[in-house]
Structure formats: structure tokens, C-alpha cells
Design brief:
The structure is a homotetramer of 355-residue chains.
Chain A: E1 5-9, H1 17-24, E2 30-35, H2 45-48, H3 59-62, E3 79-82, H4 89-98, E4 102-105, H5 121-124, H6 130-138, E5 143-146, H7 150-165, E6 168-176, E7 197-198, H8 200-217, E8 231-235, E9 237-238, E10 245-253, H9 259-268, H10 272-275, E11 286-288, H11 297-300, E12 311-320, E13 323-330, H12 334-350
Parallel strand pairs in A: 1-2, 1-3, 3-4, 4-5, 6-8, 11-12
Antiparallel strand pairs in A: 6-10, 7-9, 10-13, 12-13
Helix pairs in contact in A: 1-12, 7-8
GO biological process, one term (chains A, B, C, D): threonine biosynthetic process
Keywords (chains A, B, C, D): NADP, Oxidoreductase
Organism (chains A, B, C, D): Acidianus ambivalens
Chain lengths: 355, 355, 355, 355
């Protein structure tokens, strides 16, 4: 039996932090051991946390004291999960890595460092070898691994098997995202009551940039057209849903495609986490629904086992010989953040990067 | 000075009915004279109506009695506006037309009769000549004219000038629609609280079918490719907004296009209602916004003068040489229904079809 | 070890039905064995159910076929749970009771039959002896037991210990209720988006009537004033929350009271289900929160163990010598319906009414 | 004919600022002449304002430049309206008063200065004589007048005529308030989606304090019991409505009352603004609805003429001989802020305090 590893969760009272706490409270070999916070240091976790997820704060963590974000206090910690906000995350994560900790970050700050992996374990697990380069170059005992933006994952997870197997020339994505993706306090209520909030050019651009990097790292069975020639775009919005990013993609191809072949490809898609039977790997990373009104945010965001780890795809449709439509739904704080982080940790453990 | 025309509004207590009543209460030469209803006959309009629009019930109609939907009682009525629901509308509208009334319908029942115009006055005003054919064939003194589905109008109004002037090959539309488009009681609350409701294949299909008919009737400056070769698709949804349909379109072309040329085309677009200075014609049928977070439903649905008569377009973007993105917003019960119906009436009056 | 009892759930795809299915899937000795439905007979439960609760449909029931509501087909069923809608429930429940089934009903149809218990197990468990009278009088082998309206329970559970121990003269209750209390399709979305829906005189009256009956059946330590002299009122509303009824009560007394004594009374309140350690009995039927912004619907509706079985009370405040304020929150489909029904079943089993 | 007065609106792009701009754009003798702002100085008002109200930005102000909040630049301004936020408002308003401007403030900063009137023109117009004292004491040419908190006004406007004419002993108020009352960005969306946000002890307390001051200044026809003996309480909340504060009051009396007498008193209530026929005075400050599901936020917040200036009361009910229930609805940014401010200005003009 595997040794129980102790995890520190930075930003443990935030919207992604709580999913780490909830999921690790049920994890077979990673335990929430150190709950770091900022405004609430010294207070019992259960008293200060805003538990914006299912159920109630697990009993085993409710009385744990929130502690400072300080590597010196974490002697017996084996892994550090960092869902810290942009800007704050960067230097703190470097400090932890320097001190010898494996850091799994959901923050954007190091996502585009050339020696830092940005992992969706089913898609680009081979990029974890960047860690060796990173340690060498930076002379660190620890390391940083990141996960991509939730919005990018929601589109990229189903687009990747398509891109790997068909001559995809473009993908035009319209996102309808939930509030939890922006953290708390996040989006002002008057922006989303009786309204749709466009997220603007910058958010569109970073979504496209991250999807592009993910696609650039998958192993393709077709090599045509090259990724540089693929037109990708995203039009991003938020509305008044609590969790779950919903994304409509129109996908174009260089040759005729059959949407049924694509459906099959998506249904059969598996990755290394499934082969390794990692505990947080859902049996199917992608669940395809055939009803014409699914996926729905309220009903499908918890899909998979563990809940929220499968992306649900639906409304697959042949638009023209070389164009198809696809809708995907991702639980942004689980598969798109904390769950993705835990799956990454499991992969790193399996590969010997965390002992 | 023009004679004041008397209008009957069928379904006058419904969500489109109230906009007819509100707009006609301020109209220079069409007055709400006969308010027809179903469940509330005999009661004062102001007491029974669910006024799901701006302000309060206009004083001049608040005390009017709701009356039966019976042509025999409408001796002095000059025009009949019919926003009746699908199924109910068809036979009633025929009866009124047979009795000699000009009927302007927002219902789908006669939209695809080959001798019935489906009018967006800025786009296909020449199709009103179908009325002559209709009267002859059906031996009617009156006639039926329809307006298209609000969702179809929201995309078609800005797509039409593009299709007329550029070699468009496809348009992939994702709609995020408001609740009022489904009437009352309409959408159950549990379908849209913390959820996005996909409208399914049938609704997608009728949206595409109506956009196609509209485009088939505009006067093009380019004739390539033919409409049959243009790939159109719509993925339709409703969320918890009260009024305003928001639509994201990715548009493809046979040749390179410049999005700035398209912006200019949209900004300069005018139609016959503008030439005729019809009172319900907004100065600009399409208002183009350049900010990257506009249009927004709450802030832009009342655009134009009269309010709600302009479609607001934004987030125009060059995706690739032959692909652009565009977002449009339409006030579904005004431009997409009652306002469109009144503008149609004004056109018919100007052309001598209503005296 | 106790024999596993087989339960039939009528209306199993409804909003209360799904909570029965979810809770019984985890129950130590009552199993969901027969899922009755109406529109979806013959189809797999997991495919047709609208799972408007946490998680996904439990695997053990997902493939079960929805069956007709027919006692003849339920040979091996031990208990029948009936969350059927008003009107439909009455005759069906009678038929099942006549056929020998113990029927636990969440419907209003038999709540005021003088020989039918209306149970909140912590408050009036002694009234189950009405069953003997009922069987005798009606010559039934089975019987009907009901649970009160969720809204009434939300106020009555915390009011009861106050009424039992202090000379209460009045309670003025304002409710802000969730949508699931009205079933599906239930409340039209346009009634609750950017709105508060008053439920009107009838709903107010039935809430008061049911609270009155509950209070009339508790065992009091003070007998002054008599219940007939206690002024009770409720002003009821629904808003766009999915689950959880929130109720503000102003409570008046004949003598001076100390709100801290009331807090203590509420905190220490226990009932027979706690003494009997019934599996669905929460340790504390009432959880008192001291923060001035709790309870909150999103965060407290799942309180207790099993989740949703505790009523959360807060904002206790001394208004004047003889007036206090109290806020309470109940999970309407759990404690207020399915959970209350299961707890009732456990009590009946413990008492030998179900074998 | 009256001279046109020029108004400066501080915080003109805020949620109350926009109602000042909208209402004054239609005012017979006060014009929006100077639009002050903070972040957007130098830009056209129509471009930077978040127009969270009906219609679109009026043409006459859309191109006006937003200017600094500096009395030196306001030579020709006759009145200053100040809906500035708490804390910021205080010193700025003093500066303007010192410079000779009449300042009408919706901010709390000076509401409890003993020489500053806190006006609801229908209720305590005689307190404007405090201005004389204020000017003398502070040696100011200008002066400050305030309006009360919107929440306090929503209850106090209908409670005042009751308190003036009946032996009221208590009022227990539960508020369900809208988001615009908290300004922008204001309430985080995650606090109100699928939730009710309690506003806590401080907000409750200030509501009670302001209602108390208002009642202390009305002219009573009964003097028993003294106000000190009247128990007032408020339990305050916000939910996801945009505009409109909805308040449920249980009101108790020392002697038997008849709710029909109270209904009559409310219906007949008029104040000095009605006698003076001030342009912003609604014909009826209180509109009583008799339907058991009114008022409703969406449908009644715009009641009165000008729209939003009447408080709508409903669900009047006799609870016991000495207790009644009442529901009231106020448009918080109009009657509760900008509209109340403009009515106050009109009163001050009529009384010669502004020339």
C-alpha cells in the first residue's frame, strides 16, 4: 500500500481551494494536511470558508486552523497545490519550488515559461519531462507544473482527439461561462442579472493561446494542416450560473468528415491516466450525450467519477461536408482546476516525480 | 395630415401584445382601438395585463375593456395585429383576412405560405407584391403579412447586408436568447436558474430555415456563391434574461474579406423604411459598437429610436483571411415582433395596401 | 441485523421523488426497489429523470425501469413513499393503503383527515397511534401517514420548542421560498427573474393552518396562552433559488423572555428520532448559527447529517422584552419532504408499524 | 414662467446619478448642466456611463463631457445633487455648502447632523427650517439637505400615516432588497445567485435608526404611545433583483384597529408636495393594491407619475385585533434616492431656499 502523502493547499478558502479540500478529504493517498490562507489565518477552516460547492465542510478539516503561506512551516508537506490568483501566484510558487516542494499550480503566472509543463494528463503527459530541464536550469529541488485555464480545457479536451485524428482547419468557439471561474468577489451581480457579460478581447485571446499550446503538444495521427494554419477563435462570456463552462464549437476540416466518426473518436478517447488507473481519472474523460438538449449546466457539470472530472459533449451535428458542430461542458473548478491538479499529482507520483 | 387608423391587437395581454399596445399608444397615426384577449374578456385591460415591459400601462388604454377575438365586432378597425401563438393563429388570421382586414402576423403559421410575405421592411419590401397574388388566389378582400421569428431576425438583419455585398459561404450562429421569446408561462424557472437551456434540433432548424428565406429575398450585389451553397447553422439556447436575443456569428467567405469593410457596410446599411422616413424606422437599422464588451443585453436592447428598433452589432473581428466574427443583439419583442409589425404596417400604408 | 425493506417511490422522477431515490440509495435498511412514474414508464430511470439535486443518478438505480403506479405490480414492496401532486395523490394513496401498503405521503390530500397522522418525528411522534384508529375505521390492512408542507415545517420545527417552553402569543412569519417547492414545471421563469413572487392568500392560509396543527400536537411545558389565542401569520413568496426555504419570524410572548434562553432551548432540542438513533435523524434537528449573516440558502441548506436534515436557525435577536426575532432555513425537498418521509418510515419501523 | 435652474450631479455615472440625469432631462425647470464624475473625467457621458435604467442615455446629455467634482468650475450651477458614496460624500458636500451651493445629498454622512434636515417631502417638510440654523451655526452661504436611506423610506412612507393616526406600538419589517441599492460593483454575483444575502446587524440597525428619526418628525394626530415605546425592527436582505425594495411589515397597536381604516388612511394620504403641485410629486404618494399577489417588484416599481415616485402597498390584512400586515415596494434609486432628491429641490425652490 502506498504511503499517505500530505498536501498543502494554498488559497484553501477560495473557490478552487475548496474543491481541493473536498476532493482530497476523500482521496486514497493524498490528504489535506496544511490549509493556507490569507485573511483568516489562525481561525478554524470550517468557520471562515465560503463553501460554494456540494454538501458541507468535511468534518476532518472543519476544525483545522488556517495557516500562513510559508514554506518554512510546512516541513512534513509532500505536495503543494496552488490555486492562487494571477500575479500573487508567480513569486510564491517559485519560492516553494526553490525550497524543494513539488508545486501544482492552477494559476496563469508560469503557464508559458518554456520549461514549465501545462498539463492535461490525458493529452500531453509526455511534457512532464520538462521538469528535469526546469530543475537543472533553475537549480531547484522542487518544481512547478501548471494546469491550463478552465475555459481552454473545456474546448481543448474534446478538440484534441479531433485534431489528433482529422484534418482540422479551424474551430470557432462561443463560451457561456459560470461565475466561479472568476473567483470571489469576482463578477459584480449587476453585470449578470438580466444580462450576458462579454469577457472582451484579452480573455478571448488567452483562451485561444492556451488551446493552441495544448494542441501543439498532443500526438497527432494526421499532420495536416500544421497547427499554424488552423484558425482558432473564442468569443467568451459569463452569465449567472454558479459552476460549469458551456462551449459551442464549430469545427472545420480540409477534407470531408463524418460526424459519426468524430462521435466515435470522442467516445473512445482515453489517455495515460486511464491506462494507469489513477484514482481521480474518470473512466471516460469525454462523455458523449445524444439527446438534442444535452449537455445542460445544472445536470451535467457533475458528470463522471469522481464527479466533475468528465467533460460532457453533445449536439454533435454535421453542418456541411467539412464542418461539424459540437457543444462541450466542463466543471470549471473541478476538471478545469482542482480535479485537474489532483490528477496531475497522481500522474507525477506514478512517474516518480513525487515520492 | 394623415387619417388616424384604428388597430385591433389580438392577444393584447401577451408579451408581444403589450409592446403593440405600448408603441401604438405613442404612434402618430395608428391607435390601439380594440384590445382582444381570451381569458380576460370584459375586464379592464390595465387590471388583467402582465405589463412585462418598461413603465406602467398607458392611461389611455388602462380602462379599455378586453374584448373577444371576433371580426364581427370590429367594424371600424383598419388593421389587425396578430401575435397569437402557433396553431391558434393560423385559422383566426385567415378568418380576419377573408372578412377584409389587413392582418399583420408575428405567428409562424403562415410564414411559409408561398403567397404570404415574411417581411423585414429594410430587407425585402418588394415582396409585399405577393399580397396581390394572395388576394387573387384566395379571393380575399383583406390579406395576411407575416414577420419572421425574432431569433432569425437577430442574425438575418446584420447577415443580409454582408450576404448582399460579400461572397459569403457560411454563417455559424450561437444564440443566447431571452425568456420573453417563449411567451408566458413559457419556460419553467427550474430550466434557467443556474442553467442554460438548449432549445434543441427543431428550434435550431426553424431558425436556419427562416434566415434562409430572408436571405433568398434580398437584392444582392454579388451573386456568388448561390444561397444553396451557403452553409448556415444555428445552435439555440435560452437563459434567464427577460428581453433581448444575443447571437454570436462566425461568417466565412469565398474570397478574402476585410472586416473593416464589413463594419462600414453594416454602419451604412439603410432600407426603404429609412428612405420613406416611416415613424417606426430607426435612423440606423444596425448600430455598430466598437467596445470589446458590447453589445450587452441589459444596456443595448433598447437601442435606436423608437427604443428597441435597432439591432446592435459588435465584437467584429477578423479571424482569418476568409472568416470574421460578429455579435448581434435584437430586442425580440420589439424589432423581432411588435415593432417589426408596426413598421410593416407603416410600409403597407405608405404603399397603399392599407388605406 | 435488520432485514432490508423494499420501497416503492411514486412520482419517482419528480423533485421530491429524486431525493427519495438519492437518500434511499445510501440507506442502511430501506432500498429503492420500485420506481413508479407516469410519462416515462418502461424507460430507464437514469435516462428520463431530471436530476435536480447534487451529483449524478446513482449507478444502482440508473438502469432500473420506470414502472406504472399500480399496487398489483408491487408484491414484494414493504413501504410506499408518495410525493404525488395534490389531487392525484388522494385516491391513489387510499388504494395502496387498502391493498395493505404502509403509505408515507408528502401530499396535502390526506393531511387533515382526523385519523391520519401528519408527522414531524421530533415533534409529534405520539400521533402515530392514529394509525390504529385509521385501520379500524377504514378496515385497511395498510395505512396512510403524511408529512406537513415544507413551508410549514421550516417555521414549525424551531417554533415548536419555543411554544412548548415559553408563553408564546404570536408568530409573524415572512417566507422567501425556493422554486423546487412548486415542482416541475412549476413556477414560470418570468415570475421570478428580476422579481419576487407573492404566493397569495391561499398559500399563506395553508401554511398557517399546518403550523397550527403541528403546534396543537406537541407536548407543552407551559399551557398558557392556549393555542387558540396565539396569533399566527405567514406572508409567503418565491424567488429564484433552487432549493431551500428561508423564513423570518417575529415571535411575541405574554411575559418577558430572554433570547439567550430561547437560543439554548433551540440548541438543546432533541426528539424521539435522536433517542432512537434513527439513521436519518440528524444529531441536532436544529442548528443555531451565531453569525449575523447566517443562515444563507446556498451555504446552509445541506446542513446536518444526513445533509439537509437539520433546520438552521440564526439572527436570534431580542426586539423588546416580549418580542424576539428568528430566521430559519429548511431544505424543502429533504427535511421538508423526502428526508422527513424516510425519517417517518424509520420511526414506524422502530415502533413496529412496518415490519 | 420659472427661470431654468442649472443642476450639477455629483457621481453622475453611478446608479443614482443616472436617475438624476434621466429625470432632470425631462424636468420643466431644472436642467442637468454639469455632470461630475471621477474615473471618466474628460470623456463623453454617453460613452462612459453604465445606463442601468430604462431606455437609452438622453441625447441632450450623451455628448456632455464628464467633469471634475470641483465647486470652482461650477460658477453657473444653481443646485448640487450628491449621491456620492458614504465617506467620500461628507467633506465634499461641506465644501460645496461652504462655497454657497445648496446641496441635496442622498449620502448617509450628514444624515444625523442635528442641523441637517433628512427629508421625505410628504412627511417632514417643516424640518427644512433647520437650514436657517445650519447656515447660521456653520456660517455657510449654501447648505446641506439629505434624504434618508432607500430601505428606511420604503417602510417609513407607509408607516408614517399609520403612526400619525393610530396608536402604533411596534413594526417588524422584513426587507427583500434589490442590488442597485448597493451601487456598482456592489454585491458580488456569487452572493445572490441561488442565494439570499442577509445584510447583517449594522444594516438592520441603520434602517431602524432612520425610520425612527422620520417617525419622530411627523405630525401626529395621536400621541400615544410615545415613539420611545414603539418597538421597531428590520431584518434586511438582498436578492438578485435589479431595482425595487420589497418590505413586509407586521404592525401592532395599543388598541383594536380595523385594517380597512388603515387602508383608507394610506389611500388618502397626501403631503405638502401634492398641495403645492410640485412637478415630481406623484398624485398619490402611496398606491394601495388590493390583489393578493401585488405589489410585485417587476411590475410595480415604476408606479406613479413620474414613474417610480409612488410607493405601492398591498397585502393589507387583519392578523388579530391589534395587529395588521402590510407589504410595501419602493423604487430605491428613484423615490428612495434621485426622485426624492429632486422632489426635495422642488420643495426648497417653492419655499424660497433656492432661487
Amino acid at each position: 500500500m502506498r504511503r499517505i502523502l500530505k498536501a498543502a493547499i494554498l488559497g484553501s478558502t477560495g473557490l478552487v481551494g475548496i474543491e481541493y479540500v473536498r476532493m482530497l478529504s476523500q482521496h486514497p493517498y493524498i490528504k489535506p494536511a496544511y490549509l493556507a490562507g490569507k485573511g483568516s489565518v489562525g481561525k478554524p477552516y470550517g468557520e471562515v470558508v465560503r463553501w460554494q460547492t456540494i454538501g458541507q465542510v468535511p468534518k476532518e478539516v472543519a476544525d483545522m486552523e488556517v495557516k500562513p503561506t510559508d514554506p518554512k512551516l510546512m516541513d512534513d508537506v509532500d505536495i503543494v497545490f496552488s490555486p492562487l490568483p494571477q500575479g500573487a501566484a508567480g513569486p510564491i510558487e517559485e519560492q516553494f519550488a526553490k525550497e524543494g516542494f513539488p508545486v501544482i499550480s492552477n494559476s496563469p503566472d508560469h503557464r508559458f515559461d518554456p520549461d514549465v509543463p501545462m498539463l492535461i494528463p490525458e493529452l500531453n503527459s509526455h511534457t512532464i519531462s520538462l521538469i528535469d530541464e526546469q530543475r537543472k536550469k533553475r537549480d531547484w529541488k522542487g518544481f512547478i507544473v501548471t494546469t491550463p485555464l478552465c475555459t481552454a480545457q473545456g474546448a481543448a479536451i474534446p478538440l484534441a482527439p479531433i485534431f489528433m485524428n482529422f484534418k482540422m482547419t479551424g474551430a470557432y468557439i462561443t463560451t457561456i461561462q459560470s461565475l466561479s471561474g472568476a473567483g470571489y468577489p469576482g463578477i459584480p451581480s449587476l453585470d449578470v442579472v438580466d444580462n450576458i457579460l462579454p469577457l472582451g478581447d484579452k480573455y478571448d485571446a488567452k483562451t485561444i493561446k492556451e488551446i493552441t499550446r495544448i494542441l501543439s503538444e498532443v500526438k497527432r495521427n494526421v499532420n495536416d494542416p500544421p497547427l499554424e494554419e488552423v484558425a482558432l477563435d473564442a468569443t467568451t462570456h459569463r452569465i449567472a450560473t454558479v459552476h460549469g463552462h458551456y462551449e459551442v464549437s464549430y469545427v472545420t476540416f480540409k477534407e470531408d468528415v463524418n460526424v459519426e466518426k468524430i462521435r466515435e473518436t470522442l467516445e473512445n478517447f482515453r489517455g495515460e491516466p486511464q491506462d494507469l488507473k489513477l484514482p481521480t481519472a474518470p473512466e471516460k474523460p469525454i462523455i458523449v450525450r445524444n439527446e438534442d438538449t444535452r449537455p445542460q449546466v445544472y445536470f451535467d457539470r457533475w458528470a463522471g467519477d469522481p464527479p466533475g472530472m468528465s467533460v460532457v459533449v453533445g449536439r454533435l451535428k454535421q453542418i456541411s461536408n467539412r464542418t461539424i458542430r459540437m457543444v462541450s461542458l466542463i466543471h470549471n473548478t473541478i476538471r478545469g482546476a482542482a480535479g485537474g491538479g489532483i490528477l496531475t499529482a497522481e500522474l507525477l507520483i506514478a512517474k516518480g516525480y513525487i515520492e
